[in-house]
Description:
This protein is an all-alpha fold.
Amino acid sequence: MNGLSNHAKGFVLTFIGVMALTPDALLLRLADMDVWPMTFWRNALMSAALLTVLLAVYRGKFVSRISALGKTGFGVGVMMAVSSVTFVLAFEYTSAAKVLITVAIIPMLAALMSTLFLKEPIKLATGIACVISLAGIGVVVSDSLFVETNGNEVWGIAYAFVTAVAVASAFTLTRSKPAVSMVPATALAALVVALCLVPFVPPLHLADDQVFPVLAMGLFVLPVSFGLLAIGPRFIPAPEVGLLMLLETCLGPFWVWLVLHQQPSVTVLVGGTIVVVTLACHAIWSLRRST
């Protein structure tokens, strides 16, 4: 990637990270585990994978890289830890559609935070893409947006909103300190979450049919995706990172369709197409502008 501009490099890394995350929903369904055991395994394995890579890469400089994180790294770690818990909790209280439409405000929140705290103006093209993509997400979830779930669903929407705020905050904080890699902060946050959950999970045992999806999530999908997403905002504005994350919302159902043969509705296909085409156009514009 040496021949790429910083912006193009950030876009490519973020895109790969988001694409790596798209099978997450499928693997969650295949694992079929309770909330706290699932949250434990996801964070424990992700932290183990990331810390192993970081130790191999940094070697004798590992401690100094951790020290370099400072208050900003601490903030990123806290936000990532919060989002890892609240995202899973949100699905316990309300429908997936309502969770998705809530977390889809991440690029909007990131744009607002970047403007307020980093004094980065929102590019007109990015703002337009955010609005059109949010409309596409609305189409995706329109079939089940108003389906009743349970009397406590307000908690699910609240957890999803906290997730969106936490992720947008993490992207903005990462963007504020581009000279420092926040991957160690992500790894340590996952480790802390896993350790805190140890008293609340049953004996650490996986059924035979849970081993593959859990290991795939914890050792590949999550460390690759969140590792790269911790790097992306160093090179591109936080709103663009949040915008690319909408690809996961649209492409996630594709893997479910492919493996579990749960064919998406026409509205899902139409809404997903709106988002993908919008993001493709924005990506072409953005890359041309950076060259």
